[in-house]
Amino acid sequence: MAKNSSVLQHSYLQLAQQLRRDIARRRYAPGERLPSVRALAAAQGVSVDTVVRCYRHLEALGVVQARHKSGMYVAELEPAGRAPAVATAAAVAKADNRPAPPPPVELDRLVSLEHRMTQLYALTTQQPLQWGLHLANAAPAWYPTAALARIAQRLLRSQPEMLGTYPTGSGLPALRSQLAAWMAGYGLDLQPQELMVTHGSTEALNVALRAVARPGDAVVVESPVYFGLLQMLGNLGLRAIELPCTPSEGMGLEALEYVLEHESGVRAVVVMPNFQNPLGHTMPERNKRRLLRLVEQHDLALIEDDVFGDLSHTPHRPQPVKAWDRHGRVIYCGSSSKSLAPAFRLGWAAGGRWHARMESLKLSTSLAAPWLEQAVLAEFLRTGGLQPHLRKLRERLAQTTPRAAEAVQRHFPAGTRVHSPAGGWWLWLELPQAVDALALLRLAVGQGIAFTPGVLFSTTAKYAHYLRLNIARPWTRELEQAVRVLGQLAGGLQHAAGAASISR
Amino acid sequence: MAKNSSVLQHSYLQLAQQLRRDIARRRYAPGERLPSVRALAAAQGVSVDTVVRCYRHLEALGVVQARHKSGMYVAELEPAGRAPAVATAAAVAKADNRPAPPPPVELDRLVSLEHRMTQLYALTTQQPLQWGLHLANAAPAWYPTAALARIAQRLLRSQPEMLGTYPTGSGLPALRSQLAAWMAGYGLDLQPQELMVTHGSTEALNVALRAVARPGDAVVVESPVYFGLLQMLGNLGLRAIELPCTPSEGMGLEALEYVLEHESGVRAVVVMPNFQNPLGHTMPERNKRRLLRLVEQHDLALIEDDVFGDLSHTPHRPQPVKAWDRHGRVIYCGSSSKSLAPAFRLGWAAGGRWHARMESLKLSTSLAAPWLEQAVLAEFLRTGGLQPHLRKLRERLAQTTPRAAEAVQRHFPAGTRVHSPAGGWWLWLELPQAVDALALLRLAVGQGIAFTPGVLFSTTAKYAHYLRLNIARPWTRELEQAVRVLGQLAGGLQHAAGAASISR
């Protein structure tokens, strides 16, 4: 099914789009019964499964309604466009005191600090997209999924009884040993018991922040910065102080020094020194050391998010700040979600002097990670699978990135600047000032293309004309075409803005 | 490996115990090199793997130290008994600014609110136990692990590429649909989009509490109550108000009314109305309704933990309070960890009016649950596997429970009271007042038996002479013997206490 899955997904979404058009054109009226699953499958020449998925999708959007034992109907209050659909769902929900069914993505809510992640992910689940270039993932084919699946099958065959045991403690001992050995390869001197396994780096960061800061405290972050971190800080009641980053230096350390001397209540600095999201740069080693000294002087925690560290476009794997940490000041967070197996949801943390506190918090946040993924990852590491996989992945990234950057230069309006990364899988684009990236996203989603608008990467509107474009997939004519469509839409917006400013 | 795994585990721990004895008796002096893995394996007639696990275990305890390329050595500062071992490890850690390696379980720390879970789980990972009757699990053989493993293997064979996709959103749509259908069977009228998939009920509870309360607020809980909830409240800065429960009525509702009228800052009531942990009782339906009315009147959230609801000892599955909730006041939390697959770490929540807030918090706490477990659970539900499994599990519980209760009556000192549960898998024992359950645990662990001392189930010392005994395993002569040993140790403590009070 390696190839079929994307085809399948596409075809149910295509069918859903077609049905929405038919409904909008009143081919099916509100309240009218829709064709049965079998009838529609036969009529469209698609599988029953495709129709079922299509109907479920439309049901989730509130476009159709299932009635018990009688089939599928066009929703009574037909959503004419997006806003009324939401209002309708909310009204229905209010009438019977239920939460509303999920509305179609409201792009404006991407700006909301509390909902930016929710809405960005909703792009994936609620929107028919051909090119979802908005997330932090590579093409599924770029992961060693077959090898991982084989290991998993072997473990399930030989130890099925493990599914009936309760995972306890801070992670499978075998995994922690393998991780410690792996990390030793890039300068981290950690014992297995200094590591805990978490639900992705998200949980690692969350628990780290809770261990070192309390609601009302401040945390220094990079700017632009991973939007998930901003939503997390908001949800924890922590104040984000955003310090500008440059591709050559990383977080500005003079600015940091100033802030640490003048701001009160700062408890931690969160950084991604290797292949920063979204800039893709790496902080020079001298800056990493200086950052560590600053943190020590000011009695702070340094929370280091190193999830992209393995994704260098060269064979050189940069060291994390943790490599120089002698006083347990650095909380190191890693993950297998970027480099190896997104669906595993496994991360890890070495909490330094806050490790015991983090273990307690982690235990009462989610207890333990599932057994199987931990065991598979341990075995994959033990049998030496990671190194050759990463070599291939890095080569692919090194091939695709310049091509994508060239395509952007070719197709985007003059004045667009491309930040080419040294690692990771994005381009960070600065559009001409007049082009609002959120407006561009609205148009692009209509064409089945999504990216991450810059406004997500700050609590300010500073990056409103920036965007992040995930290009970690094989470079094809179709992808070039998608970049061209984006460029043309951006050009159109720039033109419209120019015309508007002239007419004013 | 179904049987071998426990045998294996036992034998490496036996070897570790033997080595510790040898070290204590100076057969190996501090700093001395220990036999190589192969030599020790040959000498002891065990596998190389057993020796490796034994050495890793001792290394984690700080008893031995690995030296690069040179083998395993007795730790320089030899731990003579438990306390010095800890002091030594801490001293070493301090010297090089590293966190200490995990010490052997310090039973006294079970009383600490922040560490009670950590320490209880440490019993499993750091202590050689023959009868670990201290956790909330059934015997692995009582779960349909073979069926689940088969489904997982099938999915991995047909869709390995799913391991390369990023799970987003609030859970696999197929799983949410199946869960909604399953819950409809016991009175819950929920749409799939009103459910979110979580990392066990632990995450569901955590996110629910964060959605409805802020640090400094108060939350009403049952007494005795699941210790994990107390640690969670402590970690969230929430104040627990413990209201006594009786087996016949559940949480005392007069007391609740009084508290709600007189205490300020109460934001939620957390209850386990079906087969409460540790009492095992079910709240009568009229009380469930009255509890819901009270919560409505006082504008609170009711957080309902229903993880044991499926584990009735009769075919009757009691309804959760959520079944009567018309105003979205009840946050319903469920899990597959108790009834089906502990190693999956999957739970779910229906957050009512707080659902959107919970989704945002969940996303920035751990993003999403892993794909495979969600897909397996959905398929197991879809193919009707749950009902027959639960029937068998309930029968087994109904058979074991009275036998275990009889054995306690037979072997424990006079004055011991057994609370026999209507569901779930524990006995809750009230020992004679003079017997301290923590002292009993200390003796029992020496005999390879663990249980949960009552002191964990409250922030007060109210249940110091109570204990919870997990009896969800086949009733055998050996298990009866373990109960007998416990009873004799309890008798010995009672006798000693009596002698002490006479001599005073």
TrEMBL record, chains A, B:
Residues 9-77 form the HTH gntR-type domain. The keyword Chaperone does not apply. In the C-terminal section; belongs to the class-I pyridoxal-phosphate-dependent aminotransferase family. Keywords: DNA-binding, Pyridoxal phosphate, Transcription, Transcription regulation. InterPro entries: Aminotransferase_I/II_large, HTH_trans_reg/aminotransferase, PyrdxlP-dep_Trfase, PyrdxlP-dep_Trfase_major, PyrdxlP-dep_Trfase_small, Tscrpt_reg_HTH_GntR, WH-like_DNA-bd_sf, WH_DNA-bd_sf. It comes from Acidovorax soli. PROSITE patterns: HTH_GNTR. One of its GO terms (molecular function) is DNA binding. SMART domains: HTH_GNTR (SM00345). This is DNA-binding transcriptional MocR family regulator. Gene3D superfamilies: Aspartate Aminotransferase, domain 1 (3.90.1150.10), Type I PLP-dependent aspartate aminotransferase-like (Major domain) (3.40.640.10), Winged helix-like DNA-binding domain superfamily/Winged helix DNA-binding domain (1.10.10.10). Coiled coil: none annotated.
